[in-house]
Amino acid sequence: MRKKSTKAAKRTKGTRAPRRRVARPAAAKQIDAIRKQIENVAAARPPRWNADPEDVRRSVLKLVLTLVELIRQLLERQAIRRMEAGTLSDEETESVGLALMRLQETVLDLAKQFDISPGELNLDLGPVGKLL
């Protein structure tokens, strides 16, 4: 009587060994299409931070204003939650709303002084997306 090999012994009757996948060579058109996709993605990426000494002041201000705007939006959301939950009095609601409006005006004024559009107040977080 013949002994089955260990691999064959592990398989049950009627099952086949999994087929090995073999990569097929890509056609020139496919390679060109992939190359164009990579170039398009690379071109669409926002420019990296420029450490040009003339531009450092503006870049730092842009970063700081973006972070202040993020915090302002978070505070605004928290205030809305507290208003809806009824944990803020009418006076507190008015005070928080006024403070958040003034903060937003200040951020926009500073951005305008340095010729930064409100749309620029954002950070690209790569695959995660935009911050704001």
- Encode the helix/strand succession as letters: HHHH
Individual helix count: 4
Distance between the termini: 74 Å
Instruction: Let me know the largest β-sheet.
Output: none
Radius of gyration, Cα only, in angstroms? 29 Å
Q: Strand share of the residues?
A: under 5%
Portion in helices: 55-70%
Shape, principal axes of CA atoms: flat
Brief sketch in words of this structure:
The chain has 132 residues and is mainly alpha-helical. It has 4 helices and no strands. Helices cover 58% and strands 0% of the residues.
Account of the 3D structure:
Helix 3 (56-85) runs antiparallel to helix 4. This protein is mostly helical. The protein has a domain at 56-128. The protein has helices at residues 6-10, 28-44, 56-85, 90-113. It contains four helices and no strands. It is flat, with a radius of gyration of 29 Å.
Please write out the topology:
Elements: H1 6-10, H2 28-44, H3 56-85, H4 90-113
Helix pairs in contact: 3-4
Please give a handful of descriptors for the protein shown:
132 residues; single chain; mainly alpha; 4 helices
